Predict the structure of Capsule assembly Wzi family protein.
Amino acid sequence: MKKPQIFVIFLCILSLKIFSQENAPITYEGGVEGFGYVSSEELPFWTYTNRYGRLSQETNGLVYAFAKADYEITPNSSLSFFASGVARDGIDPNIQRAELYAMFKNKWINITLGSKDFTDDTNELSSIRRNILFSSNTRALPGLLIQNAAPIKIVKNLSFDAAIAHYSLNDDRFVENARVHYKNLFFNWDINSQSSLRIGLQHVAQWAGSSPLRGEQPDGFSDFVKIFFGRGGGEEASFSDQVNVLGNHMGSYSINYKRKLSNALDIDVYYQTLFEDRSGIELNNFPDGVWGLQINRNDSKLMKGVLYEYIQTVSQSGRPRAVQNDGQQSGGDNYFINGTYLSGWTYEGRTIGLPFITINSLDEDGDFIINNRTKAHHLGVLGSFWKLDYTLKLTYVENLGSYRDPITPKDTFVYSYFQAKLPTQKYGTFSLEIGADFNEDRDTFFGGGLGYRYTFH
């Protein structure tokens, strides 16, 4: 167990003892989940993808448990403590923490210390959970996140949200003990009572750590300032980090338009870009990213929500080409990978962001196997019938490999997934999952599972 996790556990126990006085305003919540799976060869894609790193293709069974305590300091401020763990097969180690954090919140600020999932289940239909950089495909990263608790008003109909975070990549990776700097800024415009617009920027940078090829990477305060503002490194940095920017930077522009068409119908249109360097920042890789449309209905139980997403990462500002600018290169943005941080934008071998991009282990030649040029059409449906709540996903994917190692001819898949849940008031929630993956050159993967969840307050 890592020292930061031990500190968070100690903080939780100490705080609960301090605050657990007679009549203290503390509320508790807990729960347990159990799943059993069977498959023809391995589990289908959507059965294990975007499940917070709890499942793999080889998982046959899983048990997940969580406990939460909330302490009300004042009517406008609170402390929360959350711990969860998972036990399953198919992943080493079999037993791991899932989330472990302490969170302070008041009217203005929200501070989270520990490992908390970046996204939640509110956007389960989306292939990226509505975040191209953090799609819920991995376990929560340990770190510190500071963000505003509610939108900060600028003028009557205009407000903004902002966040800054520092995470540690404490898994087994090519550059050990690498760090992650993250920040975002979003502006919210309430156009009228029926429509709103939200635009913003996310920025991520991998930095510091120890590389077996390039040694210790710059990790001082002055280096953090360069990371924060996207500046080039000093003499101790690699040549590419000196002529470009220090560390491995990624980001995304986001635009989201919502409109209420009637009391029963509303639409949600969004686009998220993906960039790795200046060419992507200048949108030379357009239209790479995720384009989405969701239609929500509250007058129909059978079909409450329908989502369509088009995903592409094939442009990457064109093929790599030299330009006369102190050795800089244009094109070949090579999403989620970097010459220094060869494990790329992954945690415990899983892509943190868009799950259709895959970065696998080293091959026989010592190169990482990369598929970051892809096209996909994704459909999701949410609804209920009888007493069942259901989720349906259907995805068509074309994988083209990378500019360096293309897949010829392209590799195509169809991922299908269906889940039905039966919630009960006294006995918890029962669930059924069925999925199938189709590929013309490989065997079809069939799989399914039964699950049960019980929570208490």
